[in-house]
Write a structure and sequence with these properties.
Layout: H1 13-16, H2 32-45, H3 48-51, H4 56-63, H5 65-71, E1 86-92, H6 100-103, E2 108-109, E3 112-113, E4 115-116, H7 120-123, E5 127-128, E6 138-145, H8 155-164, E7 168-169, H9 172-181, E8 191-193, E9 197-198, E10 204-211, E11 214-221, E12 229-231, E13 233-234, E14 236-241
Parallel strand pairs: 4-11, 8-12
Antiparallel strand pairs: 1-6, 2-3, 5-9, 6-14, 7-13, 8-10, 10-11
Helix pairs in contact: 2-5
Amino acid sequence: MPTVIVAPRADLPTLSAPPSPAATGFDPAAGAEAELDRQVQVYVDLGFPALLGQDDDAFRAALLPLRQAAADLGDVRDETVVAQDHVPVVLVLDPARLRTNDVVPAMRRGTRHGVSVIDEEEARTYRTLDDVPVPDGAYLLIGVDVGAQHVGVPPETALATIRARGRTPLTIAEGLSLVTVRPDMLRPNRCFSLAASRTGMNQRVPAIWISERRPKLGWCWDRNPHTWLGTASAGSRAGNARPGDGPA
């Protein structure tokens, strides 16, 4: 397993921003639109508009089309998902506009920001699996399961189960988004692989776990089981918004 931490740029908004109060304000009784609003605020607090070259108002305006998608959500629970592993909706910003390691510091555990052991050159080699349809622009990841039921199961085996259930594995961008807006879902011994992103050159599967009391983006082998690492999945994706395309 690699051990070299990628040094983030000192001027990154996601590195210099203080922890977001909205990130710890999740209300399980809130509707999807209210939850979407909270997640937008998390991204604003953590400097994502600046990362995209926008002001806060333009950033919020570009995401407004997703409110209808959120309003249209019904019951997104899946009986195969354990209740404490379920996240109804996650806002994913356009992966094409964000460098992986610029997003990593936005993952927080308390005041400690996330780190990565995947350098940007390697990060660019990861591609989404052909059978995983990802919308253009920003979108909603719906009915997320952080995958604790797959702890101790090799990612390749877990992926087969996920597909058999009609669910979809998560990409690197989706895993980073999940931990950014719901930091409480990255738990000791309940961390997760992101099996929708693969290099096509080796058996590495990216994963996010806790190391030295902070979130870490790294990788594990696709056929190795880990007692602290499951495989995350979602029910579906929906959206049609492009933060970053509008005027700054």
